[in-house]
Amino acid sequence: MNPSDHPGGAGITRRDIHFSQTGIPRYWFAGDVHRTRLFDALSLFFPEGERFFIESLRHYRERIAGDHRLDAEVRAFIGQEALHAREHRAYNARLEDQGVNAAGLEAEALSNLNLARDKASPAQQLAMTLCLEHFTAMLANEVLGNPKLFANADPEMARMWRWHAMEETEHKAVAFDVFERVFGRSWRPYVLRSWIMLSVSFYFTTHVWSTIIRLVRRDGRGGDWRGWLRLLGFMFVAPGPFRRVFPAWLAWFKPGFHPWQHDNRQLLEQLRREYAA
Ligand SMILES: [Fe+2]
Ligand SMILES: [Fe+2]
Prior knowledge:
The protein is mostly helical. It is 69% helix and 0% strand. It has eleven helices and no strands. The longest helix is centred in the last third of the chain and has 32 residues. The mean pLDDT is 95. The protein binds fe (ii) ion (FE2) (2 copies). One fe (ii) ion binds next to α4. One fe (ii) ion (FE2) binds next to α4.
């Protein structure tokens, strides 16, 4: 799909919302340790992850300068990700206050990303960004499509995650379009984004799981197998967001893939109206 005629572009809106971290219960997801720590683990990755995404796109800003629409989208992307990072930093500071080793876990995410900065070329770093953006877009679609996902969660936390999911959907194709604009659509960029997707999937899954395990152990609930089963049930059975995203993950490996081939604008519109109000 040509970046100029895909549906997402024009609607990338930067919404400067502060979410309150005051009075958020330690186990804000239905009082459940394990499910709370799944989302907390994701949050601990975001501030540094989003900074990495911004940098990897900025590197190619000059190469797309002639394309005003795409350049405006990149600007909007940066604006949104910077605000996400700010809000997740506040979220993670609240975790630290609640006795979680948030600073240590954020530093670990940073050192992994610094390794990528040292060892990977700018093209590979951009490819990592598009793969992780595909991950966030897949999970965001689950949040958008299932209003009950956060039914028993703290309402402010639910509002924050839904805001993040909405904006991830709005800008889901920006990094991809930059990549295609710079590298074209030949077999070389296809092979690059495919093998990067395999390694990023492995890295991201192990990183998130190892973070969840350490968070839960620190809560003294590492041996609570019922809690682990509840988490696995939530992730893979009902509502099962991590099972449901599998076809979207596979779709990445189609040579002609584009993020807006999965057109979820209708879901997006509902949420946009909610946040506009
Ligand atoms: Fe984000
Ligand atoms: Fe994003």
